[in-house]
Each structure stands twice: as structure tokens, then as C-alpha cells.
Amino acid sequence: MLHWDYKIMASRYENNEEKKLSDGRTVFRTKIYPNIPKKDTDIYIVTQGGDRLDTLANQFYEDSSLWWIIGTANNIHDAPFSLPEGTVLRIPIDKIDIINKFRNQ
């Protein structure tokens, strides 16, 4: 398991534009995630029964809220969190660069 000395929280709603609806509710505008280019440091896994994007993010990044990195890297945008057994996934390891690119959009 990888370990970093600090945690970087990057919500998928961070820095998204907010809009106030006439009924008082606040909604967030959709944000386009960055393209995550392949790197030699990426690892590939084959999912097992019960694997989910959030649990994999917790395993590899120690932060389940970073599930969107794995989803984006694998072109999974509208799928449920659970994944079919035997799915090959790319896990980008350089989360700091990805998060910084996301924040600077």
C-alpha cells in the first residue's frame, strides 16, 4: 500500500460553480474532469467481486473521496460504484498532479 505523509482532500465538487434555485436550494454545475494521461507509474488491477471505486481509492490513495480519479482514468462516469468482477482498471498513482490539474481548471 502506498503512503503519503499528508492527505489531500479533493472533492469532485471543489471549486464548482454554485447556482441558487428559486426554491432556495443550491446546486453545483457539472465540472469536466481532466484527461488523465497514461504514465509508466500507473498500475493495473483486475477487479474481484465486491470491488468498488471508492474502496479502491481508499486502498490506493488512502482517501475514498478520490474515487473519481480511478473512474476518470478508466472512462467510468455514469456507472454505479460497484464493478463487474474481472474488470481491468488502470490506477494512476500520481494523484497529486491529477488533483492539481483538476483544481486549476
Secondary structure elements and pairings:
Blueprint: E1 18-20, E2 26-28, E3 43-46, H1 53-61, H2 67-73, E4 88-91, H3 95-103
Antiparallel strand pairs: 1-2, 3-4
Total strands: the figure is 4
Question: What general outline do the C-alpha atoms trace?
Answer: globular
Strand percentage lies at 5-15%
- Any idea what the radius of gyration is? 15 Å
The average pLDDT score comes to 82
Q: Give the termini separation.
A: 30 Å
Helix-strand pattern, N to C? Answer: EEEHHEH
Q: How many helical stretches?
A: 3
Largest sheet: 2 strands, antiparallel
Structural class comes to alpha+beta
Across the major sheet, the strand order is 1-2
Name the poorly predicted regions: 1-10
* Helix fraction bin: 10-25%
Explain what you see.
This protein has 105 residues and is of the alpha+beta class. The chain is built from three helices and four strands, in the order βββααβα. The model is unreliable at 1-10 (pLDDT under 50). Helix 1 crosses helix 2. The chain starts with 17 loop residues before the first strand and ends with a helix. The chain has helices at residues 53-61, 67-73, 95-103, and strands spanning 18-20, 26-28, 43-46, 88-91.
